[in-house]
Amino acid sequence: MEARQAVAESGQIERVLARLGTRCIVLVGMMGAGKTSIGRRLANALHLPFVDADAEIEKAANQSIPEIFAEYGEAYFRDGERRVVARLLADGPQVVATGGGAFICEETRQRCREQSVTIWLKAEVSVLLERVRKKANRPLLDDPDPEGVMRRLLAERERFYALADLSIASREGPHHALVGEILGALDAFLNERRDP
Ligand code: S3P
Asked: Which of 29, 50, 102, 123 has its CA 20 to 30 A from that of 159?
């Protein structure tokens, strides 16, 4: 309740929820962009459920992401990710944090276009690296040169992330300010485009 009062202009929450309808709000972007932490706070401000696609994949497989990559490989993980994101999108309205590679799949992007409003959380490589350093749970960064991997992935993926409906700079600073910025951007976007 406090978060809602702190970040939202009067009527903003109600307008966003009314115009969102049954669609989801989907956060996309690189590892370390803050999709989970911002997504959780955004959901809280909107009084919507929050789901993390990576956590749902782990739950469905009863294995951690590093275990899935090690045992079955990336292609198998991507297949599970595509199916899990499809299921989460069908359960809207809710806020969905996706893994960094999910929006690269054309089928997932198409579903997101139809069933959600997508937000690219954009951050500098230095910020991404600083954030991912804290956890060793990302198999793609289990490499002697994680910075090189991050730069290569960003270069490959940026053009897909740029297809999101909104892009927001994920700067350092208080989370509630970023959530406020996202709510303002969602309000403006949904106001312009009323049709689901
Ligand atoms: C990946 C990002 C991870 C996770 C997996 C692969 C990627 O999610 O899905 O390790 O390809 O960028 P986060 O973006 O939540 O770290």
From this structure: 50
